[in-house]
Design brief:
Blueprint lengths: L2 E5 L4 E6 L4 E6 L7 E2 L6 E2 L3 E3 L4 E2 L4 E2 L4 E2 L4 E2 L4 E2 L4 E2 L4 E2 L4 E2 L4 E2 L4 E2 L7 E4 L4 E5 L1
Parallel strand pairs: 3-6, 5-8, 6-9, 7-10, 8-11, 9-12, 10-13, 11-14, 12-15, 13-16, 15-17
Antiparallel strand pairs: 1-2, 1-4, 2-3, 17-18
Length: 131
């Protein structure tokens, strides 16, 4: 078990991790349980937005300030670094690292690591601009 979800103010939730630390998360959609369960943990930082119908698989790390759009699929072993945005219905394949301050356009399929401060979109996702 990763931790226990506690409702905080408004739509913000506090998650108490197994090591006793708390992280703040904003979750959209319905909860099926008050516990976050996974064979291998998924770690979510502070001020993260995870929209409706998104999937985050095992062994992933979502750092502070990340926004994951509705319907996005984050496969196992993915790291999404601070302040990045993953567009609606995007797919991030296994063991990918998304750098800091990255924008992934809606409907993109990411199949390779993405450097900091860049904008990628398409299938497969390609560099379109640097931020």
């Amino acid at each position: 078990m990763l931790g226990t979800v506690y409702k905080s103010t408004g739509s913000w939730y506090k998650v108490k991790l197994e090591n006793g630390e708390f992280v703040d998360c904003k979750l959209f959609g319905k909860f099926r349980t008050k516990n976050l369960k996974s064979t291998n943990p998924v770690c979510v930082g502070d001020n993260v937005i995870i929209n409706t119908s998104s999937v985050i698989e095992h062994d992933s790390l979502i750092e502070n300030g990340v926004h994951i759009g509705p319907g996005a699929v984050i496969c196992g072993g993915v790291i999404i670094k601070e302040q990045s945005f993953i567009g609606a219905n995007s797919i991030i394949r296994e063991n990918i690292i998304i750098g800091k301050n990255v924008i992934i356009g809606a409907g993109s399929v990411v199949v390779s690591n993405i450097p900091d401060n860049s904008i990628y979109f398409g299938n497969p996702a390609k560099l379109r601009n640097e931020t």
